[in-house]
């Protein structure tokens, strides 16, 4: 009998990928296509949903061709996705009513301020686990209904569907307007502000407050079950689609963080640290999000605390594309290594405000501490160090909320290839930083969820058995290093204060 595999579709912020995994959790082949980042105005970020729909089909074809297999050898397909990115489409035509509004987009700030009223941004935190912020999907749906001509009338008539990108990909792969399955999973639903984080059901009160008809919403299901099958026009005809996890939860699953207190950090466009808090939802007092970590079939859901950082890898892209200081992202490591320290320079990348643990939409980016001594090497180093400092901000909040200090941090994502950054990260956190052999943990997590649903893998035990350490960075614990660690972090905190209250009536974006 032919060997069987699992395919994961990773619909990310900057690209769509399809990765085929074998039973050992190793990559057999992959396909990847970048898609356009659309910036209609300052603070606005959009994606073209048709471009994404087409790219998903194309990368599946690439992965099949490179593996030299076809759909008959795929036991199941899993989907993982950029979370919070919001799309509304017409159920009858399958056409989007507007571009997808990306998680980084800040146009909904006024909506969030109005909804917060006198009660402040934590008004609904006890229901949905989230503060009112432009990050989440609910206010984005409201913006589309309020601003796109004819959208509200169609929504009230039950003709429109909302989805995060997992729902859009699933709906199209299972037939689109010809019987497509309109479903999301608990992890993506927990990022909309519309789901009760305890009951895992859409909350009628939240929908009413935001003016969103419940008829638009997808059905909420677990992360690991058969939702539907590839339609007759697709490359995966009759193949079960059986796993969905938002990208950060997928990475947590792929990193085998199944024990309470285990944590991972993904270094991508932004940085996202999740700590498993077990079967009870922990509500943060320190600026973190309460989110669903995963739910496997009929098993009880597992929760996480999350610290979301908006700008990390995208800061390196900005240095490359906007300032032309490097010509490729990997070059930044060599440039940073030309200097011994940051030369007193600190870069706070608050391009769309500050996310966890500050939640300050009025902040904007700042490069501070400059003297004539500072050169491009120091700026490159300050860019890398910004990621490590922001991660420490989140970890300190996590330790305070969870009451259990972290023993080690499991890491994944593109920036983990940067040794300068990873060593500095370990030194700043004072704990070991560990990278697994398969760095594509996001796609791997979605593959595991799908494979578990169809019996390809035998639950979490197989995930733990497949996980293997690749590299470990250990912090310098000498007394001199400890003093320097605290001096650097103290100056970082000072730098953060310089970014606050920048956006006011005089600063129109």
Word description of this protein:
The structure is a single chain. It is globular and about 65 Å long. With 509 residues, the protein is α+β, with helices and mostly antiparallel strands. The strands form 7 sheets. Strands 17-18-16-15-21-22-23 form a 7-stranded mixed beta sheet. The N and C termini lie far apart (60 Å). It has helices at residues 49-67, 109-116, 125-128, 137-147, 151-156, 165-173, 186-189, 204-210, 247-254, 313-321, 331-336, 376-402, 419-429, 441-453, 460-466, 479-497; strands spanning 5-11, 15-21, 27-34, 46-47, 74-81, 87-90, 100-101, 160-163, 183-185, 195-196, 201-202, 219-221, 224-229, 240-246, 263-267, 271-278, 289-294, 302-309, 346-348, 366-368, 408-412, 432-436, 469-473. The model has no long low-confidence stretch (mean pLDDT 92).
